[in-house]
Design brief:
Blueprint: H1 2-16, H2 38-54, E1 67-75, E2 78-86, E3 97-102, E4 108-112
Length: 116
């Protein structure tokens, strides 16, 4: 009887629990140490850029800008991916290039206009 009560409780909880969904950047979260493909990093960079625009941290003019370069570079803690977006029409020339950094498997590290 105890088993049937527990099974019924488990089933009813599962049926009434809200569905869990990831945020837009959810599919760009990786585990393990296998290096990501360049195409994966490019797609995750575009996704992260769009999230920064949506969050108001980046001007909407960046929406149409595609990654110009994707390179594996030596970072402060070892190898990492560096993605560069360039906006030749930027009014502030110090913000003409946007840089994003990702771990080798593809997890986002940081974004800035300095490239460091």
């Amino acid at each position: 009887m105890k088993f049937h009560t527990l099974a019924a409780l488990t089933m009813s909880t599962a049926l009434w629990a809200p569905a869990v969904s990831a945020d837009p950047g959810g599919n760009c979260h990786f585990h393990g140490n296998k290096p990501a493909a360049e195409s994966t990093i490019g797609a995750c960079a575009v996704q992260r850029k769009d999230a920064l625009i949506k969050g108001g941290k980046l001007d909407a003019t960046w929406r149409a800008i595609k990654p110009q370069t994707i390179a594996s570079v030596e970072g402060k803690k070892g190898r990492e991916w560096k993605v560069t977006f360039k906006d030749p029409g930027a009014k502030d020339k110090s913000k003409e290039a946007l840089y994003m950094f990702f771990t080798p498997p593809g997890n986002f590290i940081a974004a800035n206009f300095t490239g460091e």
